[in-house]
Specification:
The chain is mainly alpha-helical and 259 residues long. The chain contains 10 helices and no strands. α2 runs antiparallel to α3. The protein is globular.
């Protein structure tokens, strides 16, 4: 079961160049029957291996900016810890609602990415470092909280504001996911939100799916894939928001009965 979850997450991630967390988490909650908190922590642990495998491939092709990855990770590894602890402090229904809103916003960003203007602040120097470190801080918190790699945020910023080409931005994002994922996953592990038994199926599934998705991406129209993928995510996001509202009402009614 977990291999299938990883495979599907890897295929979608490979097709569109994003991390598989937004796919893995809903599938783990629905198919593996784990809590939302456990799904976030376990997804983040799996993304460490996704980032490692992906970054190695991009590095061999010379498409990684190590300095940019270091600048992103410098702030992200700090905020990932706080994001993970914040997620753990939220009740289940509230974390589901935030995750639903998050994936809807990320879907809109994916849809708009090809149409966003390039407003390059600087290719080098202090301003570029500031942009990357600020992006790393925001991405790290969201990564730790939402259990995702954050590539959907980092890549557009690197392309649109830091002047990188698409391939280098994706490779640098994947490299950044490794230390950030370790920091966030370690915090989730200490909080009891990582089920290591699930990783035995998720990791090989994601690696195989990433290869298949990356291969298929060269054969299928990217714009059509992006629209289909985002439509599925938006539908999933609204289901999460609706489910969180139902859970909240049920919880309030249960408390009222106890009183």
């Amino acid at each position: 079961m977990t291999f299938i979850i990883g495979l599907l997450a890897g295929i979608f991630g490979g097709l569109l160049g994003v991390g598989g967390g937004v796919v893995m988490i809903p599938l783990m909650v629905r198919m593996a029957k784990v809590s939302q908190h456990t799904a976030h922590g376990t997804s983040l642990a799996a993304l460490v291996f996704i980032g490692s495998a992906g970054a190695a491939t991009y590095t061999l092709n010379g498409a990684v900016d190590v300095l940019a990855a270091v600048l992103l990770a410098t702030t992200a590894i700090v905020t990932a810890h706080f994001g993970a602890r914040f997620a753990n402090s939220l009740p289940e229904w509230k974390l589901k609602r935030y995750f639903g809103i998050f994936i809807i916003l990320m879907s809109c960003l994916l849809l708009l990415k090809p149409h966003l203007p390039r407003v390059i602040i600087s290719h080098v120097g202090f301003m570029k470092a500031l942009v990357l470190m600020t992006t790393g801080a925001a991405t790290g918190f969201l990564s730790g909280m939402m259990g995702v790699g954050g590539g959907v945020i980092m890549v557009p910023v690197m392309v649109l504001l830091a002047g990188m080409d698409q391939h280098t931005a994706q490779g640098s994002s994947l490299l950044t996911m490794v230390p950030v994922g370790i920091a966030g996953a370690w915090t989730h592990l200490r909080l009891g939100n990582v089920q290591t038994r699930l990783l035995r199926g998720l990791i090989p599934g994601v690696i195989a799916g990433s290869y298949l998705g990356g291969t298929a991406a060269n054969l299928l129209p990217e714009d059509d894939l992006r629209i289909i993928f985002c439509a599925i995510l938006i539908w999933t996001g609204f289901r999460y928001i609706r489910a969180s509202s139902v859970n909240k009402v049920s919880r309030i009614e249960h408390v009222s009965e106890d009183v």
